[in-house]
């Protein structure tokens, strides 16, 4: 898609229409993500960057990247931009995928937190709500004037990130480094006839497709486990939340598997220009929809849909509303401990810095 030689030409009208449609859909998803981010931040701005805010930011930036990619792909093909084949197209194709990968990896880390909180002593005092602060700043607890001035000068050193959040950051950085390394190799291969630049891009796409497939399977496994645990809580509230967990797990594994198989068995992600399109372009359109719309746009839109409910204002912190994609009341925090205690399933669900104590029940 980004290796445009001297014989390149504009795409068939069907392929152009699909690209325009995908660009419009991704732009719409990005717009909703940023609007929702602004609304969430207006409710709890003093909490800083929570996992819910970071999730919406990643989804918004990812879909903005896809929007730019589809628009510039058409321009690069018709105008025959030489820079498009010199890693520029590769980077613009790969970067949005990495952001989307990081967003769903963040969801997986939250589900793992929920699943392992009974076993991890380090998390006994943590709030596992998606409203919890992602980065705890030691600036909020100064010990001395000297330390205060030191932290103000070096604010990054005062940021505390939990272990599973560190893993999300580490894996994302690893994928970014891998993308940069392959883009450099592709740039070098352009001037070296002995190296096939399209083969390098294919290798990267296969590696990334494997990572996305594993992520989808992991979300499916943990989603199933959490769904089974939520089933033990008999209430109308938990019923809707239970299907949100199951829905996200099912959507993730189906969509990520579909895009991975397209990456494995076709050249759609890395190489499609006029000479390699089918005569009508319909088969190419189908693969584009399967890889980009089903593989990226649908999961992102589904996450935005199930997280559309806003948290309560910060002034009402006694019983905050949890992250609805996992469970607003059934699994995240606050109201669930008491219900699960009487259904045979106990979790240490704590609110931000405070444990919620249910009222006495006869």
UniProtKB/TrEMBL annotation:
Signal sequence extent: none
Keyword field: Membrane, Transmembrane, Transmembrane helix, Vacuole
Main location: membrane
Record InterPro entries: THH1/TOM1/TOM3 (IPR040226), THH1/TOM1/TOM3_dom (IPR009457)
Recorded GO CC terms: vacuolar membrane
Location within or outside the cell: Vacuole membrane
Organism superkingdom: Eukaryota
Membrane topology: Multi-pass membrane protein
Ranges that cross the membrane: 20-42, 54-77, 89-112, 167-190, 202-225, 245-266, 286-306
Pfam family, one: THH1_TOM1-3_dom
Occurrences of domain THH1/TOM1/TOM3 (ranges): 18-118, 176-313
PANTHER family in the record: OS01G0751300 PROTEIN (PTHR31142:SF4), TOBAMOVIRUS MULTIPLICATION PROTEIN 1-LIKE ISOFORM X1 (PTHR31142)
Family per similarity comment: Belongs to the plant tobamovirus multiplication TOM1 protein family.
Name of this protein: THH1/TOM1/TOM3 domain-containing protein
Organism of origin: Erythroxylum novogranatense
Organism phylogeny: Eukaryota, Viridiplantae, Streptophyta, Embryophyta, Tracheophyta
């Amino acid at each position: 898609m980004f290796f445009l030689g001297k014989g390149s030409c504009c795409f068939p009208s069907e392929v152009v229409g699909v690209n325009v449609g995908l660009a419009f859909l991704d732009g719409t998803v990005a717009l909703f993500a940023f609007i929702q981010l602004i609304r969430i931040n207006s409710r709890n701005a003093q909490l800083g960057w929570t996992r819910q805010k970071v999730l919406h930011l990643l989804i918004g930036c990812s879909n903005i990247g896809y929007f730019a990619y589809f628009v510039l792909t058409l321009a690069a093909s018709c105008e025959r931009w030489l820079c498009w084949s010199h890693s520029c197209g590769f980077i613009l194709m790969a970067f949005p995928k990495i952001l989307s990968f990081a967003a769903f990896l963040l969801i997986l880390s939250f589900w793992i937190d929920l699943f392992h909180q009974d076993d991890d002593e380090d998390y006994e005092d943590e709030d596992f709500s998606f409203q919890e602060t992602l980065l705890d700043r030691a600036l909020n607890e100064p010990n001395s004037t000297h330390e205060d001035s030191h932290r103000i000068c070096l604010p990054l050193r005062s940021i505390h990130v939990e272990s599973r959040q560190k893993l999300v950051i580490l894996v994302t950085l690893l994928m970014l480094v891998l993308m940069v390394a392959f883009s450099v190799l592709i740039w070098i291969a352009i001037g070296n006839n002995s190296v096939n630049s399209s083969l390098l891009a294919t290798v990267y796409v296969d590696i990334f497709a494997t990572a996305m497939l594993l992520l989808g399977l992991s979300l499916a496994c943990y989603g199933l486990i959490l769904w089974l645990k939520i089933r033990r809580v008999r209430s109308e509230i938990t019923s809707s939340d239970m299907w949100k967990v199951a829905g996200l797990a099912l959507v993730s594994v189906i969509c990520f598997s579909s895009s991975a198989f397209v990456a494995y068995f076709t050249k759609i992600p890395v190489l499609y220009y006029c000479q390699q399109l089918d005569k009508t372009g319909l088969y190419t359109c189908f693969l584009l929809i399967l890889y980009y719309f089903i593989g990226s746009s649908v999961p992102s839109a589904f996450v935005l849909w199930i997280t559309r409910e806003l948290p309560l204002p910060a002034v009402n912190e006694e019983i905050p509303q949890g992250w609805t994609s996992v469970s607003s009341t059934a699994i995240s925090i606050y109201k669930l401990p008491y219900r699960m205690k009487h259904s045979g399933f106990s979790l240490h669900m704590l609110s931000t810095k405070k444990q919620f104590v249910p009222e006495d029940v006869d």
